[in-house]
Amino acid sequence: MTVLAISPHLDDAAFSAGGTLAALSASGAAVTVATVFTATVPSPTGFALACQTDKGIAPEADYMALRREEDAAACEALGAEAVWLGLPEAPHRGYHTAGALFSDIHTGDERTWRDVLVALRALVEARRPDVVLSCQGLGGHVDHRHVVRAVAALADATGCPVAWWRDTPYAMRQPDAAPAGDLPAGLLPLAILLVEAHLAAKLDACAAYATQLPYQFARDADGDPADLVRQRMAAFAREEGRRNQLAAAETFAADPDACQRVRALLSQDAPGRPVG
C-alpha cells in the first residue's frame, strides 16, 4: 500500500501530519512526502533574501539546500521517502512582504497551481498512491492555497482519495480556523490516535527543521527551539486528542474513501476513525 503526502513547504507535512505518516509507515505502507516549493534560486535579493538572513542564514548560503537536508532527516525519522518537486517559493514569485504571502494571489501568479498540478500528475502516475494526504490551506498562505487547488483538481481527475490535514502551526494559533482553500464537498472529520512511539517520531521530525524552529516556535519564548517545538507539538496533539476523546491525535477532513483506506492501512479501529 502506498501513501503520498503533498506538502507545500519543507516542514508542513511533519508539523501537520507527522504522527499519522509515522503510523502509516510503521503499518507497512510505503510513504512518500512530496514537497512542492523547494527550488534553490541563486542570488536572492530583497524580501526573498531576508527570509533567510532573518533566520541567521548567511546571504551566500544555499538556504533551500539546507532546508532540503533538514527535510531528508525529518522524513527518515518518519520512515518516509522525501521527494522535492522544485518549484520556487512565493518570495521568488513576486511576493515582496510577509503580508503579501497571506493576501490575494498576484497577477502573474494565477497559474502556479497549474504548474503544481502538472508536477503532481507525473508523481501520481509514477507512485499510484492508495491515498493522498495534503493541506487544507489554514492560515491562507498563497503557496498552501495553490496546493489545495492543485490537489483538489488532481483528485477530481484521478479519483484518488484525499485526507486534508489541518495546517500546523497555523492550527495551533487559530484552533477553529476555517480552510482558506476550496475543499471538495462531502468530507468527513477523521481523527488519528497518536500512540507514544508515533508522536515521538513526529517530534523528532519536527525538531529536524532547525532553520525554521526559532521563527516558528521561539519568537515569543526563551529556551532551546528544539525543546520548545517538542513541548508545543506534544501539547497540541494532546489538545487535538481531547477534542476527539483520544489521548493524542492529528485531525483531517477526508473523503469517505480516504477514511476507509487510512483505517485499512492502520489496521485498527480506534486509532483511525471518523468522528463527529
Question: What structural category do the secondary elements indicate?
Answer: alpha/beta
Give me the strand/helix succession: EHEHHEHEHEHEHHHEHE
Q: How far apart lie the N and C ends?
A: 27 Å
Which percent bin holds the helix content?
40-55%
Number of helices: 10
Number of strands: 8
Strands of the largest sheet, in order across it? 3-2-1-4-5-7-6-8
The quaternary organization reads as single chain
* Biggest sheet architecture: 8 strands, mixed
Radius of gyration from the alpha-carbon trace, in angstroms: 17 Å
Name the beta content range.
Answer: 15-25%
Unreliable spans: 269-276
What number is the mean pLDDT? Answer: 93
Shape: globular
What can be said about this structure in brief?
The protein has 276 residues and is an alpha/beta fold. It has helices at residues 12-26, 46-53, 63-78, 112-127, 142-158, 170-173, 196-207, 213-217, 225-243, 256-266, and strands spanning 2-7, 30-37, 81-87, 131-135, 162-165, 188-193, 249-254, 272-274. The protein starts with a strand and ends with a strand.
